[in-house]
Design brief:
Helix content is 68%, strand content 2%. It has a single domain, classed as Arp2/3 complex 21 kDa subunit ARPC3 (Orthogonal Bundle). It has a two-stranded antiparallel ribbon with strand order 1-2. It has 184 residues and is an all-alpha fold.
């Protein structure tokens, strides 16, 4: 007995237990993001589906923190590029990064990192989660827009109509969900 508590030997050091928790959190967010990518709605006026995966990109940074949120999204992309069908519509492989969704996917690590940094630096409460979600969503939309602009050769106005406008309402809903489930 130490201080009235029973000490149980688990064979796992505190550092190792912390590392295992981090790895489990990263793996969980890779899985959540992959699952949420399959909830996709195709719209006739954009080559990019509306998915729920960006919610988990934001939550990865908010919940896991900037470093582990970033790592989770790098792992998600790496697993998809390596051949696991984790991208929207059960797609996979490097070709997805060179298609219309490539810019959005490439922005996921930066969005999770930014969401995590803002959540922590702004104190972690609801206003911080709101700012982090909006900034993370804007980062994803910026990456997608720039890449589609380069890919399509259309005017910036035309690209904004298919790369940003269709996603504004969905991103606001995802921000509200992040506020509700982030536990902050």
């Amino acid at each position: 007995m130490i201080s009235g508590r029973t000490t149980v030997y688990t064979g796992i050091s505190t550092d190792m237990a912390g590392s295992l928790r981090r790895v489990a959190g990263i793996a969980a967010f890779v899985g959540f993001t992959a699952l949420a990518a399959q909830f996709a709605v195709r719209l006739p006026y954009t080559p990019v589906p509306v998915t729920m995966q960006t919610l988990f990109v934001l939550l990865a940074g908010i919940v896991l923190g900037p470093r582990d949120g970033f790592y989770a999204m790098i792992a998600y992309i790496a697993i998809g590029v390596a051949g696991a069908p984790v991208f929207a519509g059960m797609t996979f492989g490097p070709a997805v990064l060179f298609g219309p969704t490539g810019g959005y996917l490439a922005a996921f690590p930066a969005a999770a990192l930014l969401a995590g940094v803002l959540t922590r630096s702004l104190g972690g409460g609801k206003p911080a989660v709101l700012a982090a979600s909006l900034a993370g969503s804007a980062t994803i939309l910026l990456g997608g827009t720039l890449y589609l602009w380069l890919l399509s050769g259309q005017s910036l106005t035309g690209v904004l109509a298919m790369a940003v406008v269709p996603f504004i309402l969905a991103d606001l809903v995802k921000t509200a969900i992040a506020l509700l489930i982030s536990g902050r």
